[in-house]
Here is the input.
Amino acid sequence: MRAQKLIDQFEQFAPLNYREAGDPTGFQIGDRQADIHRVMTTLDVRPEVVDEAIEQRVDFIFAHHPVMFRSAQNLDFTADPQLAMYGKLIEHHIVVYAAHTNLDNAPGGMNDWLSEQLNLQQVTSWLPNPTFPEVSMGRVGQLAKPQSVIDFAQYCKARFNLTGLRVISHEPDRLVKKVAILGGDGGKFFREAQATGADVYVTGDVYYHTGHDMLAAGLSVVDPGHHIEAICIPKLAALLQHWSQQKQWGIEVVESQPNTDPFTFV
Here is the structure.
């Protein structure tokens, strides 16, 4: 099957038009017309993931985070393992595609997956896309029963299988019922999250001074990190496998195994 056939199908589910301005999402590396037989889903395209793909005889890597967030100044493969990774991808004819903020915005995509992981109920959307206001990046929903901020943080830790997370709150014992969530780096949107009426906001990569602003605004925040978006690995694999069976593509889908979280809690 041609790589472009998979891309076309996916972009019906999460159109590129849904991406945020400046996001380098979409086709990354390779030949759109290449024949593909084995697809690997991953959160990040890192050197260890590329080595894994080569070992697994993968010919298409489907990632959430674009491999080329920042443009390379050169392609000196001996100077930088990240640059050497590009050489390996090209040498082994591996196609790379990334679905980033279009997947975050898409109904049934990243932020719905995160909401489901927390078992949120009566889920609705917030933070609409400026160009396509019918789709929104954030989600807000209700817990099955109220719990304190600190108990909810422990719940998040368990549901996302974390060894640690950060809590920003002047009221750790305050009861939480309504939860706003936005995967990735969503600290700058805390006022929009607060406007939903949420008792707590779940997002990653909260900046130090933004944390102070959150406290001053009276908002409790749970920062479980950016890596909770690794939920995309099994979710994307299941989606691609479903399409393969439904449309008789005959491709095999595997899930990347290395942990690409750069942080370790000690």
In short: The chain has a mean pLDDT of 96. The radius of gyration is 19 Å. Residues 68 and 168 are 32 Å apart (CA to CA). The domain at 3-100+230-255 is CATH 3.40.1390.30 (Udp-n-acetylmuramoylalanyl-d-glutamate--2,6- Diaminopimelate Ligase; Chain: A, domain 1).
